[in-house]
Amino acid sequence: MLNHKAKYSEMIKAEAKRLGFLSCGISKAEFLETEAPRLEAWLKKNMNGEMHYMENHFDKRLDPTLLVEGSKSVISLLLNYYPSETQTDDSYKLSKYAYGNDYHHVIKHKLKSLLYFIQDEIGEVGGRAFVDSAPVLDKAWAAKSGLGWIGKHSNLLTQQVGSFYFIAELIIDLELEYDHATTDHCGTCTACIDACPTEAITEPYVVDGSKCISYFTIELKENLPSEFKGKFDDWMFGCDVCQDVCPWNKFSKPHNEPLFNPHPELLDMTKKDWEEITEDTFKKVFQKSAVKRTKFSGLERNIKFLKD
Q: Mean pLDDT score of the chain, rounded to an integer?
């Protein structure tokens, strides 16, 4: 007979699947011992660039019990966003995760449904939902709960699935049955390191965030550094190069989340269309998109940097 921890864990995983999540893994909520020195060294080298928020809440980042009082379990979830179609070749490029509606809203809704399910089925369970909006090391938790391994490009990778998915967590005060980490399957491959246009992957498993195209085009608010001129490979928002070249992404299958489908005009827009984009078109195409983060002025700046 299943003990209640195993039974509850199975129920939660089945419901996560029903809600459309790709997979679900569960870890004990505890201090992330191996991550602490790595995060500290990364911050010391200023690899976070202007992302000063990465330095805040150092302890909370490493210990979920400081983030959610009385927490016992971290439930990690993956949600596929790989599109069935991509942009036309003659276009400035957007990271695939930003094609559809802002993932924060889409996932938050699913996470809340999962939490309500747990409360309805199991009883009084407290917890919080996280979608890359709080100091949670989501890749570390997903790896700890067996959903994949952290690849040389520092993204989570899963056999048979690749890496084009979002990671989210529910941190709850209920003890569950815990999963085990999987093994690393990068082997001797260096495809991501060799392909990075700005050489941001400084060594296997270490990405200098302050050199990453995603950082420049989304996070950096001031002028783009002239020494990177011509090195952006036409990326105007985010960058997927290290994922696109990864052999494991040969296995990516299109998502089935209608809210992640792109605005009808988006995929056909050419470089000329992007260069002439007006604020009205920007608002229409990106009305519910994560691209709104960079604002019209930010996208315009990025396009001008690619064009000039």
A: 94
CA distance linking residue 44 with residue 42, whole number of Å? 6
Determine, yes or no, domain membership for 138.
yes
Pairing of strands 165-172, 201-203: unpaired
d(CA 266, CA 263): 5
Q: Is residue 112 part of a domain?
A: yes
Residue where the block lists tokens 């990405």: 207
Residue 146 lies in a domain: yes
Annotated binding site: 61, 132, 156, 167, 186, 189, 192, 196, 212, 214, 221, 239-240, 242, 246
- Positions marked catalytic: 132
The structural domain count of the chain equals: 1
**Contact present, 64 and 86 (Cβ < 8 Å):** no
Average pLDDT over residues 61-67: 90
Q: What pTM value is reported for the model? A: 0.94
Answer whether residue 260 is part of any domain. Answer: no
CATH code assigned at 72:
3.40.109
Residues 6+ apart with CB under 8 A from 212: 198, 200, 239
What was the pLDDT predicted at 124?
93
pLDDT (mean) for 31-54: 84
Domain of residue 41 covers 4-85+98-172
Residues making up the annotated binding site for cob(II)alamin are 61, 132, 156, 167, 214, 239-240
> Shortest CA distance to 153 belongs to which of 239, 44, 87?
239
Q: What is the mean pLDDT of residues 14-33?
A: 96
